[in-house]
Amino acid sequence: MSSSSSRAADSIIYSHTGLRGIAAMSVFIAHIFLMESTAWDLNYGFFRFFMWQNYAVDLFFILSGFILNWVYLSETMTIKWSSYLRARVGRIMPLYYLTTSLYLPLLFYRTFKHEHVYEGLAWPITLFSNLFMVSGIMDGGKFTLNSPAWSIGVEFFCYLAVFPVLMQVYRFLSTHRWFVSHRLLFSIILVCLFSHGLVLCYQFTPIPIYNWHWDSSWLGRGIFGFSIGFFLCIIFRLSSQWRPNVILINVVVIGVITFFLLSRMNYLPEYPLLYAFPFLVYFTAFDRGLTASILKLNVFQWMGERSYSIYLWHKMLLHSLASLSIIICRHLKIPNPIGLINSILLIIIVLLISELSYRYFETPCRKLIRNLGRVKKADI
Hints:
The chain is mostly helical. It has one domain (about 15-370). The protein is built from 16 helices and 2 strands. It has a two-stranded antiparallel sheet.
């Protein structure tokens, strides 16, 4: 790895921003279709095109591992862990705790009003696991108040534990001559192994621990996906002198998209898509070709920059708007609207709230936390 590479480590990979936007919108739209499943046949091809929300989260993990390596790691760069931690906290925690806190009144109401009918005696576990961001690690969405946020706790675990471990292991191995000569091959092998591990996560069986059965697949998906992205970025750096031509990039990326479409139409199985994601992330990182020109469009960049807000707000807003719609329709004695028009209205409202959240809460909080502890040179 060299910090003098033509692809500077501080440059933005716009195609990856666009991919994050597409993944977030896919999760969002899938949940709309699931909420209004009585209106449509979700096995129909058009709807199946959007029903890949689980794999979209895996794509998030891969992109996250790639981006953190791209931003922080190089042989000539020493990470200041205090700044790193502030940046990760600023990225994750403010919006996570805001959206989670809005569920707390409902948790307390259901627990004490209905005498544990909904939450059971496990409500303290639900409360504290969400406050400490470990609900996703414990059991995915089962204990997570804002269900999509299960992956946020897993990702934050990767920030705190997986990334530092991977970085230190890689730098330690880089001190050995044999590894330096073969690190590209070594990284490729690891990406293949971690990709297979990610596929196997969907076959994990719960691990019995006393009276509790721990579903480790949620944490496994985060660790394997993040590690894939980490070593993909190493491959990308090591191949900095090789720039594939636009034709090759287009062929590979369009091939992955074609495989995706065929799998959504049931012509191919779905799980091999996880083996295709590393090719998609690697070749889109060059920010060249037909797909890159599409992903760089303002609409995809806008969605990518607000993907975190879209991801954390959408489930809560969908449930709230659905409940409000039922109350209003009952009061007016009219049928509750479902179908295309209602879905479009939901999309508009969620995107509007996400824009306000990103602009006036997420971004200011991130800047504030990142600036904590910084000392101006003039004050030294």
